[in-house]
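User: Hey, my collaborator sent me this sequence without any context and asked if I could get a structure. I don't really work with proteins. Can you help?
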Amino acid sequence: MKNKSIVLSLSFMMLVSFCSSAVVTEETPTSTLTEETPTTMQDTTSTTSTTSTTMPMKNISKSDTLTNTDSFFCEDKGNYVYCASSEAAVAPYNHTDLQLKWGVKKGYSPEVFCASDLQDTICPNVMSALLAAMIEWGNYEPVEYWVIGPGKEATLKLVEINCERRKNRGHMTMVECTNKHANENSWFEFYRLESEKNGSVSASAAHVGHDEWGFHLFNSSSPNEFTLDKCESCEPEVDIRIIFHEYFHGVQSSFKGVGEIRSAVREPDWFIEGSAEYMALITSKKAIDSNLLVPLYISESYVARDQMERWLKEGKESLSSDCPGSKLQDLNYGNQCNAMYSLGAWAVAYLANEYGEDLLLESLYANLSQKPNFEVGFKDTYGISLEEFYIDFDKFITDPTFEPLIQEILGNI
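Assistant: No problem. I've predicted the 3D structure and written it out in structure-token form, which is a compact way to encode the shape of the chain:
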């Protein structure tokens, strides 16, 4: 194993310690859960082991209610672990009015649900990273983040908890929900299988909706970079970046409105994923560098600039070998060419360097729901058409004379 510089704050060690002393049982979950009840603040009166910490607030938040990545509690509920912020309330039980106010900062705490077979360090690390992303970018809609491990029994217990929520809140029937989770190509069974086969790698995760339900729903396999003994060279920064990536999809969704408006302004696939990759990379690095977020430990092998270099190298090689003749505009979910995410990230990095890093969120996404389509929003933001940008970017990644600009972008990472 590579040498690691262990960095653990006292408050974080306290958060981790609760799981080691708690007794995880195999009791059948009751139909009424503690966190389902409407509250104005978090109810921490559970008889299960609970830890809550509040650290000095950092005045750097874009969130109206969340200020600190250490201010949360986690509870062992027997069949799963539940985490929420100790600074903000969870969303009310009745979500029916939230869709009408989609895209407005609501200030609710995220809710994190972790399967009982996951290592003790995982749920607190997920919660801390999620809070950091929400502090950096704002917390608009309520958030549920579900983390699934490799165990079948533990996953079935988590399915019961999830489906009780969906049924009680009018989202799906129990049968619809359990059938969805049982599908190997979607939802919990898919992520259980990912955890089962990915015993020593970072998580697979997705933002799976749902504006029609009034909140952001995320599913994830086990983020094993947050463990100390499951991989030979863990890099917790990778799983932190993945959580930031997925939450950025939530931010994109909040800005795009609902219904026909959302469909009209939908971005190209490369832009959806590329902006999430780039923003996750630079913003998670900023959170760590500023000590807003303190990882379980700092990996000596993970360097954000190196990741950008790898993305450019791999993206160009993939276009050449996998999809000869293809360009950025040809990349989509059905034709990724192993380059959509990597070159998409570089496309957004190029835009940030040439026109201003703040334009993506403060201009493009902030005004996108008011535009007739993405192309108009893009031109109004950057001053060039999307077609003109495609020509510029193709020159950027193929013409050797642009190497100084590439190094300039890397130098700013």
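In plain terms: The chain is about 45% helix and 10% strand. You can pass these tokens on to your collaborator as they are.
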